[in-house]
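agent: user wants the full assembly modeled, not chains individually. Plan: 1) parse entity lines 2) check alphabet per entity 3) run joint structure prediction 4) return tokens. Steps 1-2 passed, four entities, 1248 residues total. Proceeding.
--- entities ---
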Amino acid sequence: MTTDFRDLSERLPGWVEAYRAYAAEGGVATYIPELAHAPQRALGITLHHRSGTTVSAGDADLPFTLQSISKVFTLLLALMDRGERAVFEKVGMEPTGDVFNSMLKLELVQPGKPFNPLINAGAIVVSSLLLGDSPEEKSQRILRFVRELAGDDGPAFNEDVYRSEAETANRNRSLAYFLKDNKVLDEDVEPTLDVYFRQCAIEVTCAQVARMGLVLANDGVDPATGRELVPRRFVRIAKSFMVTCGMYNASGEFAIQVGIPAKSGVSGGILALVPGELGIGLIGPALNDKGNSIAGVHLLKLLSERYDWSLF
Amino acid sequence: MTTDFRDLSERLPGWVEAYRAYAAEGGVATYIPELAHAPQRALGITLHHRSGTTVSAGDADLPFTLQSISKVFTLLLALMDRGERAVFEKVGMEPTGDVFNSMLKLELVQPGKPFNPLINAGAIVVSSLLLGDSPEEKSQRILRFVRELAGDDGPAFNEDVYRSEAETANRNRSLAYFLKDNKVLDEDVEPTLDVYFRQCAIEVTCAQVARMGLVLANDGVDPATGRELVPRRFVRIAKSFMVTCGMYNASGEFAIQVGIPAKSGVSGGILALVPGELGIGLIGPALNDKGNSIAGVHLLKLLSERYDWSLF
Amino acid sequence: MTTDFRDLSERLPGWVEAYRAYAAEGGVATYIPELAHAPQRALGITLHHRSGTTVSAGDADLPFTLQSISKVFTLLLALMDRGERAVFEKVGMEPTGDVFNSMLKLELVQPGKPFNPLINAGAIVVSSLLLGDSPEEKSQRILRFVRELAGDDGPAFNEDVYRSEAETANRNRSLAYFLKDNKVLDEDVEPTLDVYFRQCAIEVTCAQVARMGLVLANDGVDPATGRELVPRRFVRIAKSFMVTCGMYNASGEFAIQVGIPAKSGVSGGILALVPGELGIGLIGPALNDKGNSIAGVHLLKLLSERYDWSLF
Amino acid sequence: MTTDFRDLSERLPGWVEAYRAYAAEGGVATYIPELAHAPQRALGITLHHRSGTTVSAGDADLPFTLQSISKVFTLLLALMDRGERAVFEKVGMEPTGDVFNSMLKLELVQPGKPFNPLINAGAIVVSSLLLGDSPEEKSQRILRFVRELAGDDGPAFNEDVYRSEAETANRNRSLAYFLKDNKVLDEDVEPTLDVYFRQCAIEVTCAQVARMGLVLANDGVDPATGRELVPRRFVRIAKSFMVTCGMYNASGEFAIQVGIPAKSGVSGGILALVPGELGIGLIGPALNDKGNSIAGVHLLKLLSERYDWSLF
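--- prediction returned ---
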């Protein structure tokens, strides 16, 4: 299962140009004003091999915010902070089949805890579990962890996106108060949401995301230093969730069509990885009807088929 | 359809004593600490006839808070403030079959507006529609309206209950933010909830509630002064809702077994009325599994059968 | 609360002609081929006063099938056959807020029995409770009961509609097997559905339905003979359900706008009544989005307002 | 990722004996009488390596019926019969988070097609797509396919279980009629269910199931003959579904704790596989609350951890 990087570097620019066309069939997220400004036709990707080689194409330098991609990293941090048992007392392990911000199962399925940490309800609970004396401290810890995985101090909070999230995210407030009422969320709502909004607003590039993916592909070990940044067990948990729930309620289809661990965000970003081999960062702001980068999913499908990436 | 008040005044004390026993099968609401202090076996009732005659029995002097009974009065006030069209743009006319604080239909049934004004979601929206420059002003207008219908300046905010509600009502916050996200609630959440919590915390006695019921039984006309306090059309709307949705998701059964317009509250209070004839105020803090005063419902059934009150 | 029949007989023809226009905003039911043939613009009504006076207008002679209107009569018959306790062990008393053929609450709300006898699930269970050794015998008993209430041997099974129902009613089969699995339906599915399809296919005219409504308005007593055809208690139960659940999930709005017991069918028929006074039969095949005769509902609203019929 | 078969064959008998104890925490399925007779404490397993080596322990010879495990094979056969496009026009690719026989999403999520082929609704549709002029022919084709994958003519219909299924499966009838009404199921209900009940009633042993799993682990190629029994693409699809939806609504947890493609049945059977390496057949009739063999899941977790099987 080795990817031919020579072939890849030759062909990738052409593929990216060709696949921009898919953007026309999707639409940029508009739920917060800042996201609506993203260039509809942008498409960029970086692949970072364990050997150190990287290949980029298209708008790989376009900065974007992590949004839901951040849920993977707060899950890892919460597991490291609190341990597996404490985290899974508060959040389940199952895909839902519902949209990412659904509240149905919180009301319908006892004991009313979120089904998994990659839907909004679950991610909010996970953020509440992070160690830190204040929302600022928790947010800074997330940012430091992201920078550490990225091997780069570039990632930073985009204050405009953060404020935009915080002002408009009434559905997330609704989720959080429901969780509070269900006694799943122990912390106060607004400080918890403050952490959550900040983690969503961490701005990154494809190269940084690819490097983070590579650490996961490498079972949590920094490929440059050989240092374990995340215990292997927790990386396994994260990768499992990425396969079963990483691409919203199109995760099953993505497992069939692409077959690698991935997590998307409403910014059009995607974190993906080929275990043991490489990490991927991708940006393509136009989304399909499930909320995933439309051109991005098509491009990953092409790459997975050509280089035989699927786990299955 | 005339109630024999002589017979009633003779028998009522005995019935009330006998029906206290039902309290043992129910339980006092515990969701806010203040309500949990209510005396489990209390049962009191006042009936106020259009002629001016009143009959009371049991713990009719026990003060209690309106809780959901207040939803009838804020509905009337909103209709008077804004008119029928404006109110029903924001809230529907249908019973739900779900529990009073359910969010299912807000997510499942487009356009996500509350099904009726007597479930929590609907009542919160109704409160947001009241005229007034501040939560304080709105709350004072509700209180004045309640006093006017009661013909008594006794009703007042119970500050302990109000604070208790405000501190613990996370499910209501969740509902309100969901409504905000659905663009059904135009006002800010916390000021709206402040009005809502205050209206729930208006403390009354059976006599006051019976007098309010009498005004509705009298098509909105103050029986003492002959002055129209509420337009007849709006009273009709309120009575219709009381029949189809007034007793939580036991309204259908109550329509069959008792057959008169009524609205219950989690304090164990019930407002009821026999159209054209009399108003009823009742308190019995022990609730059945649907949230209605368990002894109260049994007592009203007895009275309805004996005096042939059912509309049906 | 007396209706001026002189005024009514003068004005009714003009109103009916004017209200035909509403048909353009609705549509004839198409779920079974036979219903789709109904004349879109038809509108007919008969009112039958307790005194014996009747007034008809428009297409009052157009035959139509009872469809869901039959649910009122099988409920009455089941109550007379089995008693209140046996019936309500199998079916609830609450409106649902869901569409008439919904299965959600059967799965979501334990113990999975239908919420009320006027939704399909409930009506199927009610039909299963009727006495009779075979579907034929049960069906004949229903027909006889309908004829008795109509005071007319005219009502008969429309065999084409019956066959059409039986062939296409897969959603009803699905409901029935679900009920069977929930152990709410004790009888076999197909014989039970055979009874149900037949009762829906009883063909009537407005005059016959008006006469049936009059018996209910008269508390179960045949106004011609003075004989009690249905115990008053069961009539009360039926009228309560007609108010809370009779017009599908527009029952709440109908209670506010019209305020009388009524039951509609997908044929565009409506049975209604003014307690103590008169019965109404109406046909208007074009339906609104809730499944009720669109012109019919508007006409009943007009009549209720003019003659002050509302119970509320 | 190679399993040490010497270590395995030494330790497996001891592990199986020790893990029988888990059966006490679960319960044998009782929904059909035949399943209720299974021995509660039984536990058996066979592992079949690509090299030809097999290891068995415990009650590996206990015959059991495939039940839901058959869904994997009818999916493969339908893909081979009809192609990917035709199959996925009728059934989706997403996990649901609901119980295996839930109907909620059929009503709530348009266009009302089953979310995936491993829940009952999806499997019924898949069975309807199989080529064959009669239920008998379709059933025989399934059986031949199972025997071919098992490399053994042993698998056969258990007629008692088949009749037991057919008589009691009202929930499946309900599902099928719902699908028929949604126009997702084109075939008649009873013949389709006949195929479905027969496939569930195919009786096998651990060795046979392990051999079937091995063919999937070997990308569809018979390891003995080198012949492609199933196209690799379809095997990939099946393996993806086994990971995302194979263990009912505990699939997410199984992905984390065990991390290999697997499918369980209500008989307590499990089909599992380690891609590229080996197939597993397991029987342990006592089920956990999600419907999976309770001892079986624990045993697979132990094996996966010891031999590092997880894909993640």
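agent: reporting back. Chain D touches chain B through one residue (CB under 8 Å). The longest strand of chain D covers residues 44-49.
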